[in-house]
Amino acid sequence: MYGALPGDQAGPLGRPAPWRRRPAIQRAGRLHGGGVRGHLRLGRKGLAIGIDIGGTKVAAGVVDAEGRILSEARRSTPGTDPRAVEQVIVELVEELGRGHRIWSVGIGAAGWMDLAGGTVLFSPHLAWRNEPLRENLQRLLRRPVLLTNDADAAAWAEWRFGAGQGEDRLVCITLGTGIGGAMVMDGRVERGRFGVAGEFGHQIIMPGGHRCECGNRGCWEQYASGNALGREARLLARANSPVAQDLLAAVGGRPEAITGAIVTELALAGDRASRELIEEVGEWLGLGLANLAAALDPGMFVIGGGLCSAGDLLVQPARKAFSRNLTGRGFRPEAAIELAALGPNAGLIGAADLSRVSSRVRS
Ligand SMILES: [Zn+2]
To answer: Rounded to the nearest whole angstrom, what is the distance from the C-alpha of residue 316 to the centroid of ligand 1?
Structure first.
């Protein structure tokens, strides 16, 4: 995480922390299997607050060393003004801090953080561009603060407390409006050279295909996300196919009202057309995972996000398509594909735990 070991960041109030002076070879060194977990056990047992900043809401919780949420609070995301967002974070920490002794604060948001974890380089839902958020917040909160990408935080939580426990090479895929991606390799969040790894949703899976907001065409997230599911269902409904009769009836005959969430709900209730639409998304999912397996060779993929409430309706076709498209199939072990275990709170649990584990070196 943050390109090196937990805690490899500037200290509170922006001062360089003493642990940054560890020998480079130690900072760059890889930790393996049991060694990593042994290392984490040395971490503080204290409580941390995790804050997940989304496009519409800010969710916060007090999280203990076992990943349990002890209390929660929520606010609307106050527009895009960085100062207003900071103010909401301060309020949430004050509110949740009453009655708990809080050691550190972890903040997860969509977007890219610099490798040192101090600056938001870019966040799609917020007007943060090169924003030194951590420095500002540490001054206001007078506690260690850690900034992390929301997908990285969720992956960390699944590795520590959820479906990915015990897996040394874990890839997490979050299926929502787009596709979030993150990797926990040998006990660390792997973020690449510049801190922006994991953008799996923008692998081009269909050259010349649907236009993506990233500017390219045919990105994976245009085929295997909640938004893709909604789009395909609307197309089916607009085609006036008798197949889509129940789907249309569920939205009062207005195709534009169909969303991925509605399709998922209908599929779970047994609607055939909705099940077929999810199966199709599952096949695209499996194809993309096979590409990732060719590059990364993980032991497990954990699939989270809103769309995973479809459960086996999504994952079974994904597993089938994965096996069918895997490079060297029949001659290699296959990665497991599992549903995430922690639900929508994974991001805040992971952000809190990362901040706690990361700040342990200060004690
Ligand atoms: Zn794209």
So the answer is: 25
